[in-house]
Design brief:
By secondary structure, this protein is an all-beta fold. It has two domains: about 110 residues, no CATH class; about 140 residues, Jelly Rolls (Sandwich). It is built from no helices and 15 strands. The strands form three sheets. Strands 4, 5, 7, 10, 13 and 15 form a six-stranded antiparallel sheet that branches. Strands 6, 8, 9, 11, 12 and 14 form a six-stranded antiparallel sheet that branches. The radius of gyration is 34 Å and the shape is rod-shaped.
Length: about 290
């Protein structure tokens, strides 16, 4: 035969731009890589990788391996899980977690959780359980900060005098349940250990010893600094009981700090103050 007859490729790898002439049937085999190489799908332009199977599954055949969806590292982008059928996302008793130094978790209208979803550090120590009935359970130190101290039916008194500084209220007896803060009735304070903006509420029923009617003051202090918006005063008659309260928002930019309540009167003579019932509570509103 003449030497001018073209000779075809001897090996497939010699074709550097191969194109399929028809559908590729893997015939029960597996597409693999070597040397820990990635398998990359790269549609051109606005093309997408589309799975048309009636029951498309992405699953891990190994034991205990991680299955990750990631946007390109360092690039701008987002990841979406969308059902065009009914708009629901079913975890089916799985774990929905965001891993990284920072993250935002948002529950949107139309998302259905089947089973229990754990939000936090992977569900091992500090996390929030979200059940398919909408109940939240905070485990470990997960969740917002709250706590308080209170006293009920006290007969103890403190001596207050308008000529001296505010006097620390010391009648506290009991700590409430708390999370990420330290109520300490025995030390007459709440220690805040997480920075943020807090709602501080205080209420009391108090009376002063015999004498003329007087104005009674209660002030909130953080680390011995009076907070102008944590303040109340009421004029009460001699030996009469008066109910009073305040609530306001304070910014705690650095921690730890101690919150306490101090009292004073507007009187020409010192008086004994009885704080019969009182509650001091904090609740974190945000960072």
């Amino acid at each position: 035969m003449g030497s001018g007859i073209p000779i075809g490729l001897q090996n497939i790898v010699e074709d550097t731009t191969p194109q399929l002439g028809g559908d590729l049937d893997v015939n029960g085999q597996v597409i693999i890589s070597t040397a820990n190489g990635n398998i990359v799908f790269s549609p051109d332009g606005t093309g997408a990788m589309v799975i048309t199977s009636a029951n498309a599954l992405l699953f891990d055949t190994g034991a205990g391996r991680d299955f990750l969806f990631k946007t390109n590292t360092g690039a701008s982008g987002r990841m979406e899980l969308v059902s065009l059928f009914d708009g629901t996302l079913n975890t089916d008793k799985g774990i929905l977690a965001i891993v990284g130094t920072t993250g935002i978790v948002a529950f949107l209208h139309g998302i259905t959780v089947t089973g229990t979803t754990k939000l936090g550090d992977g569900g091992s120590t500090n996390y929030i359980d979200v059940t398919n009935t909408g109940n939240l359970t905070f485990v470990g130190s997960a969740g917002m900060i709250f706590g308080g101290i209170y006293v009920k039916d006290s007969v103890a008194t403190i001596n207050v005098d308008s000529d001296i500084a505010d006097v620390l209220v010391t009648q506290w007896t009991t700590d409430t349940d708390a999370n990420n803060c330290t109520p300490a009735a025995a030390s007459n304070k709440i220690t805040i250990t997480v920075a943020g903006k807090y709602l501080v509420s205080f209420s009391t029923t108090a009376s002063v010893s015999s004498g003329s009617a007087t104005a009674l003051f209660f002030n909130g202090y953080i680390d011995d600094v009076i907070q102008p918006n944590l303040h109340l005063h009421r004029t009460i008659s001699s030996t009469a009981k008066g109910a009073m309260s305040f609530s306001s928002i304070v910014d705690v930019p650095s921690v730890p700090v101690d919150l306490d309540i101090r009292a004073n009167i507007e009187s020409s003579a010192a008086r004994d103050l009885t704080v019969e019932d009182a509650q001091l509570n904090i609740f974190q509103l945000g960072g």
